[in-house]
Amino acid sequence: MVGLWAAGLIALSSVVYHRSFLGEDYATYNQAWTLVGQGHLNPYDTVYGFPFIKADFELILWPLALIHLALPQPNVLLWIQDLAIAGTGLVTFVWITEYLQRKEVHLGTAVVISSVALIAYIANPGIYGTLRFDLHMEPMSTLFLLLAGRDLWRGRLRRAWVWVAIVLLCGSFSAIMVVGLGVSALLAGRETRRSGLLLITVGLAWTGLISVLHANLGSAISQYAYLADRQTLTGSNSVALIVAGALTHPWRVTDQLSKRLGDMFTLIKPVGVIGLASAWGFGIPVTVILVDALNSQPDFLRDPFQNFAVYPFVLLGTVMVLVWVAERFAWGVVVALMVAVVVTIQSLDYAYPSSPNVIRGTISEVAPDTAAQLRRALARTPPDAEVIATLGIMGRFCARQWCYYFSPDVARQVHTREVVFVFDTPHETLTTPTGSLNAIAYVRDRLHARVLADAAGVAAFAWTPPPGTIQVTIPTTRQP
User: What DSSP letter does each residue of 261-278 carry, written as one string?
Assistant: First the structure.
């Protein structure tokens, strides 16, 4: 079942890739993965304007780039994310099955419980929302976190630390999730208490190291500046200032969390809120939710990819809580069954309309004729050309050294003998439709660029800069 589902996820991602619905986040990974795979071991992220390693210290991209040697197609990155998501579902299912066996739950009952849990995971609209938002490290790190947690629970401590090491390679947010895993291990019992303390220490130390190295430039650290009573934050002491501000002014934390309660419930309800009452269902979900809820931007709690680790751990915790209730009370089995039925109905009732809508929205985000023009423009773009493209569709164009998103009236450095402009007016968010038309007219009429594609809202041009040109600025106001 999981294998078939994984194949379905790969098919969905392939459609997304074919439709070119991939923006700046995919662009930055596509660029870095391609450059490292080609031997550029310190790639510069031209999308955000700093070395890729400084974005979030996502060291895992370097071993992943070995895959580029055999499979250089950028869609492979999406497939890796698909396999991580499917793998997370499989490990969750296995862990639940093993837990039920340890508790000596009747085989038939165990099969039903684990199967329902797997269905709830697969039906969760957050899974498909994660695929809709480009490519991110959170689904990959969640798989290894789950493997680490399972090995800690089973007493295989050495192997658990191997998984933890891989998690730390996934960046600063993953290091925070290691702290959450440590909290769970600390609460789970005497056997894992020491490991829990070590995990908390390691996660905090790794987070601090990343901050000291100033390698969290992509972490939107300034969106927590209000906790330190500042407008913005820069420098290696940013994390320390945030923590100090939160501890000395706790009402800032409580006020922010109170505003996010509805979003928290929406996030957790597909996998059973009661799972938070379990040690293994508490640490990582609460840590992730707190970090994202305290962000001044509400989208960080609403974006499913950012909170992906919540789903498997709360689901696992839900099963553990129900079994605990069934074991300890005279009517516990009846109560547990009633709660399980309610949780299942709530999960599937929420997923039934939501997940298909998310999938349909993902597939139809870019119209077929628009996607065809984007593929035409990409096919006509030389691999060594610089590209300046609309933010929402730039992802596929960035398997190259120089790639920028189109920003109105902003100067972009010119590095190559040919610069390709790609405007997708239906998905332009940084200027108005009139601004897009004026920018297109400027490139066509003032720069005298040749047309690569011009239909279905897509206008792509190739421009050969005059000798000595070092930058280009595209205005969005009508030029005389």
Answer: HHHHHHHHGGG-GGGGGS
